[in-house]
């Protein structure tokens, strides 16, 4: 197990927060704070914020991501956004299959797979989210579920395309609740994800894939979580809306 084989990536997930003007202001505040990061820094923002965010991040080490992508190239899909629209706007990353999309917007393992393919085929890096509910954990299905979700998401993704895949293990019970998984639980969950990748692509390839933890990661607990061998970064919700807190997490990832 060699953590040095993988890129540490800290990605903010702003969810449905910040107007374009607020986005520009927050990124201007963050830029100097994360300029010397020892990891990759990404901010995934609402679609409408993307032009302002790309402009504000220009010349910095902050890459801009989206929070969703549609799997068709174009057509009658009211309210959806295609890969081409994102890449032309300067987007480099996209969150796929977040548990809030699975819970509130009918996202399934199959549509997660299609969106993942659309992203990597367009040269975007997909941050694919997997995670168990509290009920599933208590029933003892965490490993089975994480492996299944990971394998479903990666169906038809080639070993070469895997270079553009990040998996984020986000226990649903830890998202936005203030309840963080212990560092051991995070490491174990991320380990299940890596084991699923190893079963599909081989252990050597699995060693190179960035697996993030997400779920109430904050300035206070990031260092311990990121110190675990299987935790290669974080997907940060609430704490990514505060420049100071986010920069502390970025610094912890560079250690
Ligand atoms: P949280 O969200 O950090 O606010 O728990 C994480 C996420 O949903 O990506």
Unreliable runs? none
Distance between the termini: 18 Å
- Class by helix and strand content? alpha/beta
Overall pLDDT score: 97
| Strand order in the sheet with the most strands | 1-2-3-4-5-6-7-8
Q: Which molecules are bound in this entry?
A: 2-phosphoglycolic acid
Percentage of residues in strands: 5-15%
Q: How many extended strands? A: 8
Please give the radius of gyration in angstroms. Answer: 17 Å
Largest sheet: number of strands, sense, barrel closure: 8 strands, parallel, barrel
Keywords:
255 residues; alpha/beta; eight-stranded parallel beta barrel; 11 helices; binds 2-phosphoglycolic acid
Overview of the structural elements:
- The relative contact order is 0.17.
- With 255 residues, the protein is of the alpha/beta class.
- The mean pLDDT is 97.
- It is 41% helix and 15% strand.
- It has eleven helices and eight strands.
- It has helices spanning 20-34, 50-57, 83-88, 99-104, 109-121, 134-138, 142-153, 183-201, 203-206, 222-226, 243-253; strands spanning 9-13, 40-44, 62-66, 93-96, 125-130, 165-169, 211-214, 233-236.
- Strand 2 (40-44), helix 2 and strand 3 form a beta-alpha-beta unit.
- The protein has an eight-stranded parallel barrel with strand order 1-2-3-4-5-6-7-8, surrounded by five helices.
- The structure holds 2-phosphoglycolic acid (PGA).
- 2-phosphoglycolic acid binds next to strand 8.
């Amino acid at each position: 197990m060699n953590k040095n084989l993988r890129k540490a990536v800290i990605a903010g997930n702003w969810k449905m927060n910040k107007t374009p003007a607020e986005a520009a202001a927050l990124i201007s505040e963050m830029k100097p704070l994360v300029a010397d990061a020892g990891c990759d820094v990404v901010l995934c923002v609402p679609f409408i914020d993307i032009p302002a965010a790309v402009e504000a991040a220009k010349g910095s080490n902050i890459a801009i991501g989206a929070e969703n992508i549609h799997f068709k190239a174009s057509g009658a899909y009211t309210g959806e956004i295609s890969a081409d629209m994102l890449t032309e706007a300067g987007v480099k990353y996209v969150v796929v299959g977040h548990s809030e999309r699975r819970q509130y917007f009918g996202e399934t393992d199959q549509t997660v797979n299609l969106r993942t393919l659309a992203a990597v085929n367009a040269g975007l890096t997909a941050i694919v989210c997997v995670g168990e509910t509290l009920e599933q954990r208590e029933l003892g299905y965490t490993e089975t579920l994480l492996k299944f979700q990971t394998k479903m998401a990666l169906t038809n993704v080639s070993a070469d395309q895997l270079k553009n895949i990040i998996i984020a293990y986000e226990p649903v019970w830890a998202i936005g609740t203030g309840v963080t998984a212990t560092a051991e639980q995070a490491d174990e969950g991320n380990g299940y994800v890596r084991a699923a990748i190893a079963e599909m692509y081989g252990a050597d390839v699995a060693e190179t894939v960035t697996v993030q933890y997400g779920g109430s990661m904050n300035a206070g607990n990031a260092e311990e979580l990121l110190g675990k061998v299987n935790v290669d970064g974080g997907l940060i919700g609430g704490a990514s809306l505060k420049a100071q807190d986010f920069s502390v997490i970025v610094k912890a990832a560079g250690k």
